[in-house]
């Protein structure tokens, strides 16, 4: 009986329902998909990444861009739960202004920077966001703090 229960749990996990959000123009629900990649830049992200449907609670697309000494170091995109994504995004402005984790300005080279954003208005929202400024993402912190969720 324990083996049967384990098989049922495994099967249920594999067939998690696809996440959906309301479409603001039609009022109907649409399935959420996000571009997934973990790469050093957008060129590599486009080569190795892929569009995947979001499952279960993962109903938004997350974006994380890391820089060290002003140079792009890592881009990560994929599905995430709204709460977890927003909790990560709050880290953008932790600490005093000089010590914020998110320092997207191209001239900032004093410390590492990690900027996070959440979106779900289109399947390509994360990719489109990072493609700003030739694949570096926005250079203005206000764009990283903007609410891009439906």
TrEMBL record:
<feature type="signal peptide">
    <location>
        <begin position="1"/>
        <end position="20"/>
    </location>
</feature>
<protein>
    <submittedName>
        <fullName>Oidioi.mRNA.OKI2018_I69.chr2.g7867.t1.cds</fullName>
    </submittedName>
</protein>
<keyword id="KW-0732">Signal</keyword>
